[in-house]
Write a structure and sequence with these properties.
521 residues; alpha/beta; TIM Barrel; 2 domains; nine-stranded mixed sheet; four-stranded antiparallel sheet; 19 strands
Length: 521
Amino acid sequence: MLSEKGFPQASREAEQGHGHRAGNEHGKGSSHGPHGHDKLGHDKAGHDKSRHAQQRQGRPGHGHGPFGQAPAAPLRMEDLFASEQGEPLAHAFSKKATIHPFMNARPIAREAMAASWERIKEIPRKGKSVAYLHIPFCENHCLYCGFYQNPWRTNQSSVYADAIICELQAHRDSASHSGAPIHAVYFGGGTPTALETKDLCRIIEAVHECLPLAPDCEITIEGRIFSFSLEKAKACFAAGANRMSLGVQTFDTRLRRRMGRKVSGEEAQAFLSELLDLDQGAIIIDLIFGFPSQTEEGWAEDVAKAAALGLDGVDLYALNLLPSSPLAMSIEKGKMPPAPDQSAMGRFYQIGSEVLSRHGWQSISTSHWRRATRERNLYNLLVKSGASCLAFGAGAGGNLANISFRLNGDLQGYMESVARGEKPLGFMMQTPERFNFLNETKAQMEVGLLHVEALCERLGALRLDTAADILPLLKQWQRAGLLELADGWGRLTIAGRFWQVTMTQYLIQWVQQRLEAAAAQ
């Protein structure tokens, strides 16, 4: 039996609204499921991941009106135009936007959430599906992270594993948790590899037992090298994991130490080589550009080292300097030099992309590259396409039957709900079904190739004049050097790939506004 006492030593955290990494990876889903920021503050689309977007005041690109809420005034198409002056990598837009998962969504009252859950859990899933499990502990607070929640204590391992297994078992026979196959499972955090080996393996085995996994299901364990021994990796593979995603960020030992990483760059490379020698599954790492004092030469060296290791995949992320992170506060106090400004970040992205291209790597999304076909990046790509997402663990985010939800991020509250046999819901949002087709647009933008002709046909059927409402925006982006239009498709340039998240947010927000206007006529 699971005790309602939960974690007697764990502080009760205020419930927060950040969603995966889906992303966590670019959308590793937010480290908390299919929406929100990831734990590192990466600039990510989606999960992502993941799975509390930073809100900007005003119109997009001009500093007026928060994303995810109705703007103070209707947008004009011109508000979404990119600059046609100067280098588009540096100056296309004044700021990067964040894709908000709850545009036009309606919050469900707390007192109605339990009934809503009982309804949607008995609706069979349709289409592709994924599952996200959140492990909300970190062994230390990395300097750049704005989402640190719970310090790790070894006595929490078995108790938390018991809770998340209990949650898996409680819903295994419901229509939404059985039936259609699950194609990808993501263990995000926090730091999943902080769990004791036996407990992490127990959860992996419970996933196999309780969920209808597809025979080729991608099962990812996210972690960090500091808490991930070779023996733990072997045990995870034996328990049924087949993909490891490790947050390396940089191989520069000096920079790693300044950012709170405990393992040197040389030690990280040595461990990755040993992990690759096991040849048991796909090995992926994250690299971040935009750290204070990071140079273009140092960044190119980081990416080249990753390419030479023989890894299966790599993510290249721009540092998203969140005001709540210790790094931002250190910069503000003058204890650290400022991070590169926005105009410099595109150049870092271009350098990373070119280094991987020279090594023969293939881009399979705007932030993710693979060396060979073992790497699929399936969870992240499916989340971006609007796949149903089952969610387990304190703070995890999910999506079922057009309802997005986040589980209680307060450890004690989570434990008590699970012990009572209840789904530990934190919040729920009803998303409009009429906009589901835009998930395909998001997915296409994520891989850098928009089917313009198909989108215009769909919008035309919904009474939108695409010649006046959609094509002028895309043609302006083409003039600005972000997009190449040909044969009914829009292919993102290197600058467009860097600004993809902003362009996707603007396009979807604009389409939704025009559809609402057309429906009102």
